[in-house]
Amino acid sequence: MDCIFCKIIEGTIPSYKVYEDDQVYAFLDISQGTKGHTLVVPKNHSASVFDLPEEDAKAIFRVVPKLSNTLKKAFNPIGLNIVSNNEKPYQTVDHFHIHLLPRYEDDELVLSMINRMNDLEQKDYVEVLDAIKVAMKA
Ligand code: AMP
Ligand code: ZN
After folding, report:
1. Domain extents for the chain?
2. What's this model's pTM, rounded to 2 decimal places?
């Protein structure tokens, strides 16, 4: 499989390993968007969250609090963002992963949310909810 993260897990491409167990591998993101920026990946290859088996999801999220607390202890950040990009153009490596990004004063990382609540009425929320409910049943 021509997947850079599979090669990192196999050890054929080097990485700065932070943590490993039977199902999970965590390593420093080469970009270090902030100090301590870590990627957590399932050892089994899944391209994105859309085909991630529940067992692998469980395994990854089970270690997230421990790794987050470790990063907190190591670097004393003011907060930490957990990010997962799925599918292009957001995702650049097609092996599911989550980013742990410790945050610091003036770290210049930009992750912005938009609040549209002032443009929305109750019926708009109901419409969205109905679409989700239909999809949930399908
Ligand atoms: P995304 O854009 O969410 O798919 O994130 C992919 C991440 O993988 C980026 O933040 C890259 O910096 C990181 N990355 C790519 N190649 C490597 C590598 N060889 N070692 C560590 N991190 C990598
Ligand atoms: Zn892979």
Report:
1. 4-108
2. 0.97
How far apart CA 111 and CA 42 sit, in angstroms, is 24
Angle at 126 between CA 125 and CA 132, to 5 degrees: 95
Confidence of residue 48 (pLDDT cuts 50, 70, 90): very high
> Among all residues, which ones are annotated catalytic?
97
Instruction: Identify whether 102 is preceded by a cis peptide bond (ω within 30 of 0).
Output: no
Domain 4-108: CATH superfamily is HIT-like (3.30.428.10)
| Ligand 2 centroid, distance to 132 Cα (angstroms) | 30
Is the Cα torsion angle 81, 58, 42, 88 positive or negative in sign?
negative
Q: Which of 27, 30, 83 to mutate to test the pocket of ligand 1 (most atoms within 8 A of CB)?
A: 30
pLDDT of residue 28 exceeding 80:
yes
